[in-house]
Amino acid sequence: MSPSADPAPGRSCDQTGAVTGVDEIEAATQAFYATIDDRLAGVSDRIERGRTYRRLLAEAGLAGLAYPTDIGGRGLTAEHAAAFDRVSRPLLPPEDAMFAIGLGMAIPTIVAHGSVDQQRRFVPPALRGDEIWCQLYSEPGAGSDLAGLTCRAVRDGDEWIVTGQKVWTSGAQHADLGILIARTDPSLPKHRGITMFAIDMRQPGVTVRPLVQMTGVSEFNEVFLDEARVPAEWVIGEVNGGWSLAVALLAHERSSLGRGTTTADGGRSKAGRQPLPFTALLERATEQGRLDDPNVRQELAAVYMGERLIPWGAQRGLHPSIGKLWRTIQGRRAAQLAHELGGAVATAWEVGDVDADVFAYHVLNCRGMSLGGGTDEIQRNTLGERVLGLPREPGPDRDTPFSELLRN
Ligand SMILES: Cc1cc2nc3c(=O)[nH]c(=O)nc-3n(C[C@H](O)[C@H](O)[C@H](O)COP(=O)(O)OP(=O)(O)OC[C@H]3O[C@@H](n4cnc5c(N)ncnc54)[C@H](O)[C@@H]3O)c2cc1C
User: Fold this and answer.
1) Is 0.85 topped by the overall pTM?
2) CATH number of 18-131: 1.10.540.10, 1.10.443.10, 3.40.47.10, 3.40.50.1000?
3) CATH class of segment(s) 134-241
């Protein structure tokens, strides 16, 4: 069949002309994830397991289904990609989480706003797991007020020189690339003098220092940029036009956070910052002989309903902030129930031995879900202003040059 001929409904030609049905993608996805644990069994290093997993996924023809073939995708439809997403989501191995920033945020932004050369440079290695990304947004003085960032990028010939500090950078300790926003013109108002870059994390000007969290684990880091270099062709979008791209990337982040339901392995890994699953809580309530307790039953029912509602909400295309808020509420509720079922033991364990009690890990870690990707309060502000049409928060600084703003 020629690529231009119309395939039957529910089937699609990729750019080689091969016909692929949505049902074939679903079957291939099921088959791939059914065997992935066995195929990774011989690889002990966590990062290497992740890279191997993505390479195998790409070799199985299941990476980047809706992306064009010349940037490493399959050239299929959004329907095929949605089918893959639906089938794979409950089966994803913990290793999948290390690609969330690259494939869930940076790459969609580059595909939508980057140049053709940038797409060819960055998309194929991300799909194959050769390059892992981190997100260099937050700074010590710029979290919720992200547009107040002070990390500077100055043009120097064919390069930009970047100096500043980022913080809470998840996964920076093993990232190859970062998606960075930096101030490129302080004489413009704060939202208008920001540029988005891709930056090589493995260069002398980049220092990554892990932060130890109350769980005893270091998932995120401080990143110091000391005259780090970025080639001019790695500016994503327009110079000084990075704010709208930064917001677009955040929408991808909130959508993917809001879509997630639970960890694939019953919550026994620290794979993601996903709520504990209902099945793990039911198992624990059964072990503890608490299934007849009306309070426990009520909470179990609430967790079950929440878990079902999150993906349905995502399918209906709810605003990303609703999904994100819903997930944090679910995460706290599930962890609270785990805590009640576990008693004091749920928060008392040997620091560093997080495998000793995954429930304790979730009890402590669920608080961070309310912050990462924008706090609960910021999601509510966004919903108020952008969905309900309420007046914007007062901001006398919107039109003032950044360099003239009063700052701490
Ligand atoms: C688990 C985790 C992972 C993260 N990963 C990354 C990452 O990979 N990359 C990255 O760049 N950042 C990351 N972050 C940082 C995260 O985006 C910020 O923590 C978040 O945006 C809040 O910023 P802040 O910590 O500076 O708090 P602040 O902005 O100082 O907020 C403090 C408190 O004030 C409230 N507040 C602030 N402004 C308003 C307002 N206008 N209206 C109402 N309330 C307000 C906030 O809701 C919060 O309760 C991560 C954070 C966590 C917890």
Assistant:
1) yes
2) 1.10.540.10
3) mainly beta
